[in-house]
Amino acid sequence: MDAFYASVEQRDDPALRGRPVAVGGDPDKRGVVAAASYEARTFGVRSAIPMARAVRLCPSLVIVRPNFAKYRAVSQEVFGIFRRVTPLVEPLSLDEAYLDVTENAWGEPLGTRVARRLKDEIHEATGLTASAGVAPNKFLAKIASGWQKPDGLTVIPPERMEHFLQGLPVDALWGVGPVTARKLRARGIDKLVDIRATDATVLRETVGSLAEWLQQLAQGVDDRPVISDHDPKSSGNESTFAEDLRDLQTIRREIQEMAADAAAWLVRHERYARTVTIKVRYHDFETITRSHSDAPTRETDAIVKRALTLLERTEAGQRPIRLLGVSVHNLGTEIAAPPAEPQGRLPFDDEQVMSG
Length: 356
Description:
Elements (H helix, E strand, L loop, with lengths): L3 H9 L8 E4 L8 E4 L1 H4 L9 H7 L4 E3 L3 H18 L3 E5 L2 E4 L11 H16 L5 E3 L3 H8 L7 E3 L5 H6 L11 H9 L13 H8 L3 H8 L15 E12 L2 H21 L3 E11 L4 E11 L2 H12 L9 E12 L19 E4 L1
Parallel strand pairs: 1-3, 6-7
Antiparallel strand pairs: 1-2, 4-5, 8-11, 9-10, 9-11, 10-12
């Protein structure tokens, strides 16, 4: 999806259309940009930068507080369209996914046609635009999807792969961020194809265990399948607050809401969790976690109770808190029956507490 959060806000508020918009927090309270409209991007405003910097770059910037419930609803609508066309949908985030359309409900023989029809259906259903990349593998499709944003459609057929690879910078490689890119460029590796001519030992010295993977990508090789049903190991959410939290009741309320969200996720995904974990980051950036394992559950009250009990084992209310999080782990699809207790065995305490 194109500038997803910002585009949803512009769709729903005509006064925002054509204006530079950033979705995120207060610039005076450590807020960051979660999404920027394309009008804002022309000023250099990008996601993840401090909102205060965004305002300096674009004094006319309109700041909108995020509404994640609304974004999730739109995301579900879009993914519903995907899954009506192919069951092989691998989500990357609320607004991005891989689709294997080798076989599709429309019987279209060309991925390009599927992509174009998907874009049309998304626009008709949501009023939003999406950009698509069509390619023989994930690596190239991902790059292609961002090639002509917004509302783009870029196709890389097998016979054009090499031509496309020749023009890519080293930053395009999967797993190469700014730090790794600087290390590679310091070795004279500026383009993706330069990886091919680099001695394997030199590459390992520069990027470590990433070397073999980068060599494959530099050849355009990426055999990862589209996996439609990841078996999640955990789920959770966390929030960094614009102002440090000091009031215990406010802190408890935040934990309660996050725990309820985690329980709702379990219900939606038909999972049960044995372990509940909370994360607390104090004002001085000291970060702690507290965990509790018990019988599998997805009941909201039970998960909220465990999270609040764990909160009592922190210094909440005594030290300012800048971040809170709640997550669930040790997931399963059913409640296992407890094992029979052997004769003559002393019982253990039901509660198992792990801290980190």
